[in-house]
Design goal:
The complex is a heterodimer.
Chain A (H helix, E strand, L loop, with lengths): L17 E2 L6 H4 L4 E2 L3 E6 L5 H16 L3 E5 L4 H9 L5 H6 L3 E5 L7 E3 L6 H14 L3 E5 L1 H5 L4 H17 L3 E6 L12 H4 L2 E10 L2 E11 L8 E7 L2 E4 L15 E2 L4 H6 L5 E2 L3 E6 L5 H14 L4 E5 L4 H9 L6 H6 L2 E5 L7 H15 L3 E5 L10 H17 L3 E7 L4 H4 L1 H9 L2 E10 L2 E11 L8 E7 L2 E4 L4 H17 L5 H11 L1
Parallel strand pairs in A: 3-8, 3-9, 4-5, 4-7, 7-8, 15-19, 15-20, 16-17, 16-18, 18-19
Antiparallel strand pairs in A: 1-2, 9-10, 10-11, 11-12, 13-14, 20-21, 21-22, 22-23
Chain B lengths: L22 E7 L4 H17 L4 E7 L4 H6 L7 E6 L4 E4 L5 H7 L5
Parallel strand pairs in B: 1-2
Antiparallel strand pairs in B: 1-3, 3-4
Classes of the chains: A alpha/beta, B alpha+beta.
């Protein structure tokens, strides 16, 4: 085969030719994919997902863009590789049978070799060329380079590697070359600094016993790209990267209203309820009825035929269903009809960002009008507060763009706002903040609710008692007797905000009695 | 590659010499690329000097017989393989380090 020359066009409105990866999120970050007909270096430690990403690039190329592929495996055996990626839903056997992918397995055993002088890797080129020719490949993966470098003279390997890169360009294939990070590359020899057109690093970091995969584009010649580290997950559908792009630069605000599901609560919220696409926070101590309020909202949303996603981080869905049935919310038929979807995951399973990524995936699938997160505080145990805040902000922005109303519940302990600034972080971020709490009246615990803030509407300042009955949530009418209690609850709220002194509060307590 | 050579792919040199073990050698080369050209020159010289009359040398051009290189699982060239006497020995490079080659051929310890 005579090598073809790369035809380069220099026009004024030049658009950098790219080869889309088809990997969710990655094409967004790279602004369209990897550099077409050029090699990309994919660096990362063992188990960071290099091979998976490379394989997905090839499989997507075959399935989405009809570009045949060659996978040159230095590490894994062919059948092992086929088996390993099967769990990610990639059927390599089928593509091999259809002549869409060719897996060239290269055994490297330099130890057996006695070096007697100068040599080159020409045989590797011959084998690769044959493989490319067999399927007329447009995409090529070499996995991984370290195995190649291992044992061979690194001086020779370096010059051969440079030759390989320009050879790949000549062959007009879009290539991924994987390599361990910091071992041969990036630090010790610095090859990538000047030879590769695109360098992507992968990383699997463990913080608080939770591993998070991250991706970063170190360099991309001739193209703009996102500079951040982006978290990504590998699940049964392959890789998804979560681009943290300021999502809500200019979101449109809706003036439409959505009912809270409780008529008297709607009354308190400017007589109409929440704004559509707004964010709502219900905070309160344990057992004050946060989940019930949230369910009430979700229930009413479903009854006006709007989809709702309920993300439960504390209770399993069937437990929520059972518990809510006891207060008159029959969720089971709603789940069955598909109008209510549950997402359940242990908060400690992965970090907040990955939870959001998983939730985002479901949102993109089912397109709900309302998302409930119960409770958001459980997610906050992982990661530092500033991280959490920025993650939450981005998540809320993402929802706002899609005009999805989001309701968080937050479990707090008395006086915890001082201790837990993250909660304060959310309350300043949300549009509507309601606080529920327990107050003691005549040796009896009563639940109360007040609207702390609600942007863009005239809301009630009352503290209302409410009852959770077998027919849902009922807000009690204000009576003179209760008014005293209201002041008691106000006092407590003030205490939460650290506004009142202990002297004042004890005075109030006496008045209450 | 474009610079494939039209060259006699196999050069068989047969020689017999009673008493000593006969050597069967295979040299994988890439046409007349510099490393390979040097390797051919070197092996001929070594054989001439140390194995005269008791070796069989096969020179294989991987451009023309790619399947043979595949069976040997090669990626770098040139490679000299001592098939016989056993054990089999692979030598990578242009064979300019004669001492290493002689070690590989078990001609020196």
């Amino acid at each position: 085969m005579k090598p073809l020359r790369v035809k380069k066009s220099y026009t004024n409105n030049f658009k950098f030719p790219k080869s889309p990866t088809g990997i969710q999120g990655l094409d967004e970050i790279t602004n369209g994919g990897l550099p077409k007909n050029r090699p990309t270096l994919l660096l990362g430690n063992t188990g960071s997902g290099k091979t998976t990403m490379a394989i997905e690039f090839l499989v997507n190329g075959i399935e989405m863009f009809d570009e045949p592929a060659v996978f040159m495996a230095f590490e894994e055996k062919k059948d092992e590789l086929v088996l390993n990626v099967k769990s990610l839903g990639f059927d390599l056997d089928k593509h091999i049978a259809n002549n869409k992918i060719y897996i060239e397995q290269v055994l490297i055993n330099p130890d057996e070799m006695r070096e007697t002088g100068m040599y080159d890797l020409e045989e590797l080129f011959v084998r690769l060329e044959q493989a490319i020719y067999k399927v007329m490949a447009k995409r090529v993966v070499l996995d991984s380079l370290d195995t190649l470098f291992y044992g061979f003279d690194s001086k020779i390997l370096r010059s051969e590697f440079l030759r390989l890169l320009s050879w790949l360009k000549e062959k007009e294939v879009t290539a991924i070359i994987t390599s361990e990070i910091g071992d041969v590359f990036l630090t010790r020899q610095g090859i990538e600094e000047y030879v590769a057109d695109c360098v992507i690093t992968l990383d699997n970091r463990v913080t608080n016993q939770i591993a998070t995969r991250r991706l970063r584009i170190v360099k991309y010649r001739g193209s703009i790209h996102g500079n951040n580290e982006y978290p990504f997950i590998i699940d049964e559908k392959g890789i998804s990267v979560y681009p943290i792009i300021s999502e809500a630069v200019q979101q449109e605000s809706s003036s439409k209203r959505i009912s809270s599901g409780i008529e008297s609560l709607d009354e308190m919220l400017g007589k109409k309820g929440f704004y559509e696409g707004s964010s709502i926070l219900i905070s309160g101590t344990a057992g004050t009825g946060k989940t019930s309020l949230a369910t009430s909202f979700a229930y009413s949303v479903c009854h006006v035929k709007k989809r709702c996603l309920f993300c439960a981080f504390e209770e399993a869905p069937n437990q929520v269903v059972r518990n809510m049935e006891s207060i008159g919310f029959d969720l089971a038929p709603l789940i069955k009809s598909g109008i209510l979807t549950f997402y359940y995951s242990r908060p400690t399973l992965q970090n907040l960002e990955l939870h959001f990524l998983a939730i985002k995936k479901i949102i993109n699938e089912i397109k709900p009008a309302v998302v409930v997160l119960d409770p958001i505080t459980n997610l906050m145990t992982e990661g530092s507060n500033s991280d959490i805040r920025s993650m939450l902000t981005r998540f809320v922005d993402f929802l706002k763009i899609q005009k999805i109303t989001v309701m968080f519940t937050a479990a707090i302990t008395v006086g915890s706002i001082e201790r837990n600034p993250s909660d304060e972080g959310i309350s300043s971020m949300v549009d509507t903040w309601m606080m529920v709490q327990d107050i003691e009246v005549d040796a009896e615990r009563t639940r109360s609710l007040c609207v702390m803030k609600s942007r863009g509407m005239i809301h009630s300042n009352e503290v209302r008692m409410f009852k959770i009955s077998s027919k849902g949530i009922i807000l009690m009418p204000i009576s003179t007797n209760k008014k005293i209690n209201a002041s008691e609850s106000k006092r407590r709220i003030k205490e939460h905000q650290n506004l009142s002194t202990s002297k004042e509060s004890s005075g109030l307590k006496e008045t209450a009695r | 590659m474009s610079n494939k050579i039209q060259k006699e792919s196999k050069v068989k040199v047969k020689a017999e010499s009673p008493g000593d073990a006969k050597y069967i050698l295979r040299l994988f080369v890439t046409g007349i690329l510099p490393n390979s050209a040097r390797a051919i020159k070197n092996i001929n010289a070594i054989c001439d000097q140390y194995l005269k009359g008791r070796y069989e040398l096969e020179i294989i051009d991987i451009y023309q017989q790619p399947s043979l290189a595949l069976t040997e699982e090669l990626i770098a060239v040139p490679v000299l393989i001592k098939k016989f006497p056993l054990p089999e020995e692979k030598m990578l490079g242009d064979l300019s380090n004669i001492q290493e080659v002689l070690k590989g051929l078990s001609l020196v310890k």
